[in-house]
From TrEMBL:
This is RNase H type-1 domain-containing protein. PANTHER family: OS05G0353850 PROTEIN, POLYNUCLEOTIDYL TRANSFERASE, RIBONUCLEASE H-LIKE SUPERFAMILY PROTEIN. It holds the Pfam family RVT_3. It comes from Gossypium trilobum. The lineage of its organism: Eukaryota, Viridiplantae, Streptophyta, Embryophyta, Tracheophyta. It comes from the Eukaryota.
């Protein structure tokens, strides 16, 4: 059985505060674990990388062997995947590459932003709360309500 990890970051346009979110689902798409983390002030690219590294370490700690990691940040997916071409000078990218290299059946792929809305919502929740790290064993009520609204929009269109 494989799991899917979706990850995303968010930066508030006025304050510059940032946060990241992630969801682990089983191969049937069912919620296993969600989490978000507030990072403070940093760029969009940096929060995406911190969020990705954070999520990889959490998934690794959970002991999953086969993991499909999905990110909507194409540049980070490309930079992280370029481990064979001399390596990156960015310390975060190097650390992410090390984690990915230590796991045989893990892959990092790009997904369009529209398909990553649940983790985007989790990241934005962390912006509002300012909590360091929150882990959700069940989908938060806000996310469930958000999912219902999206489904209703899809059905009605």
């Amino acid at each position: 059985m494989y799991v899917v990890l979706n990850t995303d970051g968010a930066v508030h346009s006025v304050s510059g505060l940032s946060a990241a979110g992630g969801v682990i689902r089983n191969n049937k798409g069912e919620w296993i674990l969600g989490y978000n983390r507030f990072f403070g002030k940093c760029s969009a690219a940096t929060v995406e990388l911190w969020g990705l590294l954070d999520r990889l370490l959490i998934v690794q700690k959970q002991g999953y062997n086969e993991v499909i990691i999905r990110s909507d940040n194409l540049k980070n997916v490309i930079y992280t995947s370029e481990s064979k071409s001399g390596g990156s000078k960015n310390a975060l990218i190097k650390r992410i590459q090390q984690v990915l290299a230590s796991e045989e059946s893990w892959s990092l792929t790009y997904v369009p932003r529209e398909t990553n809305w649940v983790v985007d919502a989790l990241a934005k929740m962390a912006l509002l709360s300012g909590d360091s790290l929150r882990i959700f064993e069940v989908s938060p009520l806000r996310i469930k309500e958000f999912c219902r609204k999206i489904i209703l929009l899809i059905i009605s269109s």
